[in-house]
Specification:
Its cofactor is heme. With about 500 residues, this protein is of the alpha+beta class. The chain has 17 helices and 11 strands.
């Protein structure tokens, strides 16, 4: 019996040693294999929190500085998360075109959870049937080429209100605050398409409160949140960001719920003339069995009212500010417009293809002041390789659009505002619609901004109308502040306030 037990023990001990050495060999081999998979270069960062403190208050600027040291594809340990940053056109192309499908999802974050109805919207939703349905309906009934043509008259009417308001302010000797007027006009344009009504009657406290809410949303959603990168301490809300997001979400939810309730109450008045919300409700299912809930619909309305007003208005404001610094640009734009349009009528959208210098001004603003300095983050579904570097599964991707637009290896004199660069030579055929990675203000690939077409139309038409209709002058004794305020949308730190005096025939402002 003792001999049998000894043999049994020896066998078990032998098996245990065999398993121990095989496991140790496997772990050692895996360690060597992973170590041979070289991550992109980047700063070491701090213990636990990683590179989070290095981003400062202007992450796009700090990341651009780091890229000069570490290269076009840079790795940062952000808390417990891996992040890569692409800072050149080639690097952006590698991620957003070659590896587009692998980076088609968004990472979980507080903004998506607390502001965007737990990612039930179009911006933060996972790439899949629901996202495709939201995107399809938005393109078909609001953001696509045919839909944009159908609501051209709405843009014309609302811009007429804006022009008359500005002329009235001039007659009263008052300056105009550009972002306030732009938010008012754009919110009413979007309101008429979505809800068949203007959402604001006059520029005032109600529209300004809405503008402040939009700016707060874009700012809080754009700031790096410690809890996103160290999930185990997210409950502590160390920066107070999540608490602010929850309060702001309640305000927006009250506003959007009110809009929907009023829309339902006026359904009979729209028979035969459905608006975007009607179409969204009527077509809220697809062949995959995906259906849109009330939460999805609210989330999409939030997307359209916030991103639809803030991103385009910031571009127009930056463009006017740059032109005020460069009066010769305004002079040349006026000469082109007077030649093509004259001074007896307002600019029309059909005039824009005949105004190459205006289009060049818009492109130059998209380059130097992209509305989204860091594209919305994406996350890798599977491990991959870029430029010979290993990118682990679950790595967050950020493309520094701001840095690409100011790269001296891509652009001649990138800090200058020079629209002429787009009229001839090597930059003439560059377009901001996501195909030329030197200029991707709306991103690129599957998750390119759904409102790219609308954004370009609004910027060209509204900016063109403002430049054509008015002469511009700063308030006496003030200097033009060109500082940036970071957020999902890149705002001017100090809103542009100017005198706008009519330069067309008086009948245009009647």
């Amino acid at each position: 019996m003792a001999i049998l037990i000894d043999k049994f023990l020896l066998r078990e001990i032998g098996v245990a040693f065999f398993v121990f050495f095989v496991t140790r060999f496997a772990i050692h081999t895996l360690f060597l294999k992973n170590r041979s998979r070289k991550l992109p270069p980047g700063p070491k960062g701090w213990p636990i929190i990683g590179a989070l403190p290095m981003l400062g208050s202007m992450p796009h600027v700090e990341l651009a500085k780091m890229a000069k040291k570490y290269g076009p594809v840079m790795h940062l340990k952000m808390g417990t998360c891996d992040m890569v940053v692409a800072s050149t056109p080639d690097a952006a192309r590698a991620f957003l075109k070659t590896l587009d499908i692998n980076f088609s999802n968004r990472p979980p974050n507080a903004g998506a959870t607390h502001l965007a109805y737990n990612a039930h919207d179009m911006v933060f939703a996972d790439y899949g049937p629901r996202w495709k349905l939201l995107r399809k309906l938005s393109n078909l009934h609001m953001l696509g080429g045919k839909a944009l043509e159908e609501w051209a008259q709405v843009r014309e009417v609302e811009l007429g209100h804006m022009v008359r308001t500005m002329a009235k302010s001039n007659n009263q000797g008052k300056p105009v605050v550009i972002p306030e007027l732009l938010t008012f006009a754009m919110a009413n344009m979007i309101g008429q398409i979505i809800l068949s009504r203007r959402v604001f009657v006059t520029v005032g406290s109600e529209s300004n409160e809405f503008k402040d809410m939009v700016v707060e949303l874009m700012t809080s959603a754009g700031l790096p949140n410690i809890g996103d990168f160290i999930p185990s301490i997210a409950w502590m809300d160390l920066q107070g960001l999540e608490g602010g997001m929850k309060k702001l979400h309640k305000k927006f939810d009250v506003l959007i719920t009110k809009m929907i309730d009023q829309h339902v109450a006026t359904a009979d008045s729209r028979k035969g003339k459905p608006d975007f919300l009607d179409q969204l409700v009527a077509n809220s299912a697809n062949s995959d069995g995906e259906r849109l809930s009330l939460t999805n619909i609210k989330a999409v309305l939030l997307n359209l009212f916030t991103a639809g007003t803030d991103t385009s208005s910031s571009i127009i404001e930056w463009s006017l500010a740059e032109m005020l610094q460069n009066p010769n640009i305004i002079k040349r734009a006026h000469e082109e417009m007077d030649r093509v349009i004259g001074r007896n009528r307002r600019l029309q959208e059909s005039d824009i293809p005949k105004l190459p210098f205006l289009q060049a001004i818009c492109k130059e603003t998209f380059r130097k002041h992209p509305s989204t300095p860091l594209n919305l983050p994406r996350i890798s579904t599977e491990p991959c390789e870029v430029n010979g570097y290993y990118i682990p599964k679950g790595t967050r991707l950020s493309v520094n659009i701001w840095a690409i637009g100011r790269d001296p290896e891509v652009w001649d004199h990138p800090l200058d505002f020079t629209p002429e660069r787009f009229l001839s030579g090597k930059y003439a055929k560059i377009d901001p619609r996501g195909n030329n990675f030197e200029l991707i203000p709306f991103g690129a690939g599957r998750r390119i901004c759904a409102g790219t077409r609308m954004g370009i139309v609004l910027v060209e038409y509204i900016l063109g109308t403002l430049v054509h209709s008015f002469d511009w002058k700063l308030l006496e004794g003030t200097e033009l502040n060109m500082d940036e305020a970071f957020g999902l949308a890149l705002q001017k730190a100090v809103p542009l306030s100017v005198f706008a005096s009519p330069r067309l025939d008086a009948s245009v402002y009647a």
